[in-house]
Design goal:
With 253 residues, the chain is α/β, with parallel strands linked by helices. It has one domain: Aldolase class I (TIM Barrel, Alpha-Beta Barrel), CATH 3.20.20. It has 8 helices and 8 strands; from the N terminus they run E-H-E-H-E-H-E-H-E-H-E-H-E-H-E-H. An 8-stranded parallel β-barrel has the order 1-2-3-4-5-6-7-8, surrounded by 6 helices. Strand 1 (12-15), helix 1 and strand 2 (49-52) form a beta-alpha-beta unit. Helix 1 (32-45) packs parallel to helix 8 (235-248). The longest helix is centred in the C-terminal third of the chain and has 15 residues, at 170-184.
């Protein structure tokens, strides 16, 4: 095992809630107050950035400008951690509605993820960039990776999310990661690759990222369990385990 005691861990992003609802886990942060409290806990546990899905009063994902502004204001009062949000089409299916929502934001996140398998990805990303919001390109499969590789805003994206689905075993996770990475082509020097999984592929992806020295993420959006399959108490516990997992699985090569 490589000695990582004198080398920093790669950036670990905490994905706090995703499109999940409270019914899926009692510690899932939904309200602005809960999100802020969770941010403080995951940063203390070692997260270097947070990815948040802003929720409406019913607990559903929203692009609402006022709710986003409240979350950002509350977080930035107590922490300097970079905060990112989603622009997923499940919250606003029509691309023109997502564009209008991004243009109406009165407070801006540090970064936002754009899924390249969704209609209007190039336009949504361009709108974010015009407003000074860094873009994470979400690549869920090879077709999305190919689409991103041909995008006019490709070079302006700051981070690429190589996102692996639930249902994969360890070998399938590695094969899928290699295939999507090959389809997206090479990255510019300023661009960062973040590898993560969901459900069954989540901890395998963390291990792959550890061995390759890649950025990764963890949180209740991606998994509800610890590496041994036991239920996670909260996001902070997942972050703590991810940091240790990075060390055990190889650290930075």
């Amino acid at each position: 095992m490589p000695d990582t005691t004198q080398r920093p861990l790669p950036l670990l992003q905490a994905c706090l809630n995703g499109a999940r609802t409270r019914e899926e886990h009692p510690a899932l942060p939904v309200t602005p107050e809960e999100i802020v409290a969770d941010v403080l806990r995951v940063v203390e546990a070692g997260a270097g950035a947070v990815h948040v899905h802003v929720k409406d009063d019913a607990g559903r994902d929203t692009f609402d400008a006022d709710r986003l502004a409240e979350v950002l204001w509350r977080v930035r009062r107590v922490s300097a951690v970079p905060v990112g949000v989603t622009t997923g089409a499940w919250a606003l299916p029509a691309a023109e509605d997502r564009l209008a929502a991004v243009s109406a934001w009165t407070a801006l996140p540090d970064f936002a993820s754009v899924n390249w398998h969704e209609e209007g990805a190039d336009e949504v990303a361009a709108a974010l960039l015009r407003r000074g919001v860094a873009v994470e390109a979400g690549l869920w499969h090879e077709a999305a990776a190919t689409a991103w590789s041909r995008s006019p805003v490709r070079e302006r994206c700051s981070r690429v999310l190589l996102e692996l689905p639930d249902g994969l075993d360890e070998e399938q996770t590695l094969v899928r990661a290699r295939a999507v990475k090959a389809a997206m082509g090479s990255l510019a020097p300023h661009q960062q690759l973040l590898l993560h999984g969901e459900g069954s592929s989540c901890w395998y992806a963390v291990a792959i990222a550890a061995r390759a020295g890649l950025t990764t993420r963890i949180g209740l959006e991606d998994t509800l369990t610890l590496p041994d399959g036991t239920p996670a108490r909260d996001n902070a516990q997942l972050v703590q385990h991810a940091r240790e997992y990075v060390r055990l699985k190889g650290g930075i090569e």
